[in-house]
Structure prediction request, 219 residues.
Amino acid sequence: MKIHSTKYLTAGESSEDRPNWLKALAKLSALVCFVVVALSGCPTITRTFQDDWTPYASIKLIEGDALSITFPSSPDLNTVQRIRRDGKIDLKTIGEFPAAGKTPAELEKEILKLYEKDLVLKEVSVILQSSSYPVFVTGAVMHPGKLLAERPMSVLEAVMEAGGFDNAKANMRRIVVLRTEEGQLKRYVLDLKSVLDGRSKQLFYLRPSDIVYVPEKAF
Prediction:
């Protein structure tokens, strides 16, 4: 890469040379700025949706999860069971059916299609009664590390499980949640201070393997 040299204007130089000197300096500054931005990057903050504020709404089912499947118009079809190691469940009159890898809402739609012709009321309810999945908490908390969530767990609850904030260091307004989804890393930034102060009632719920990072204050 060829970089043009620059020099200060001396007494022996005419003022006509000044514009060229300024142009060269401007070009060099722009190049440096471009390289710094390209190398440092700026992580994109992912938008949050309603599912992120609803327990279990967007969590994909895994083996061992306990499900309650209810048919309001046909209670004889109701069942409560755990997803087997092969990812399947047993449905009355249907037999084995894959459940792992789907959200409760997705499973509801698929089960409804299977029974649609036999139901007076076209409605099926799939409720995840219990699950167990890992999340990680790091940064300015008292006991950082891995947690095993056995119930719907919000970011605030995960921090409390990790011993709470290190009040002398924690920046509660810029909590970061890192989530890998469909091969992409997503980054959410949350203000938990507003929740603790009572100004917000929204709790962001975690998914399996989410990483919660509590940054330190900038002094």
Remarks:
- The CA atoms of residues 57 and 179 lie 16 Å apart.
- The chain has four helices and ten strands.
- The first helix runs from residue 18 to 40.
